[in-house]
Design a protein that fits this description.
Strands 5-4-6-3-2-1-7 form a 7-stranded mixed beta sheet. It is elongated. It is built from 3 helices and 7 strands; from the N terminus they run αββαββββαβ. By secondary structure, it is of the alpha+beta class.
């Protein structure tokens, strides 16, 4: 093989590798999610300032971890959840992709105030286009077991103390 042809082959191979790395880094849900950090958040009653509950959470703070979420998780313990951290406070829509149990989806603004709670039933369809959408506004989203918020009297305007930077 002559040098010119070999040089072109190497350049093409490097280009293909770089495109693959960019795709894995940019498109959510592609590539490994890595290990989830674990933290504890406290839910505070807005009227009494008393602690309602403590939840041990897995932290989803990258696009890959947010996309994966609780998908393919078998269950949650009663005091366990997942905390999704977005770069900015905004309007987000969550779905229950590849879920095997219902959950409560709690939207939380940057000050820690709960702005919206959804009681998300088991999806009846598994295709992304037909999944139920759960919209809300916030910087954080906390997912806990189904009806957790009702069982513990957690409502909109209560606060979630998040000590994660």
């Amino acid at each position: 093989m002559n040098r010119r042809l070999f040089g072109r082959a190497v350049a093409v191979a490097i280009g293909v590798i770089l495109i693959g790395v960019i795709i894995v880094a940019v498109i959510p849900g592609i590539g490994p999610t890595g290990e989830y950090d674990r933290e504890t958040v406290e839910i505070i009653d807005s009227q009494t300032d008393e602690q309602l509950e403590r939840v041990s959470v897995r932290v989803a703070d990258t696009p890959q971890k947010r996309y994966q979420g609780l998908s393919n998780t078998d269950s949650l313990a009663t005091d366990e959840g997942m905390l999704f951290i977005h770069d900015n406070e905004d309007r987000y829509v969550y779905v229950m992709r590849n879920m095997s149990f219902p959950i409560d989806i709690i939207f939380i603004d940057m000050t820690g105030t709960i702005t919206r709670i959804h009681h998300a039933e088991m999806p009846t369809s598994t295709t992304d286009d037909s999944l139920q959408r759960y919209p809300g506004h916030g910087k954080y989203v906390l997912e806990v077991s189904y009806n957790y918020t009702q069982e513990h009297n957690i409502t909109v305007d209560d606060r979630v103390q998040i000590n994660i930077q």
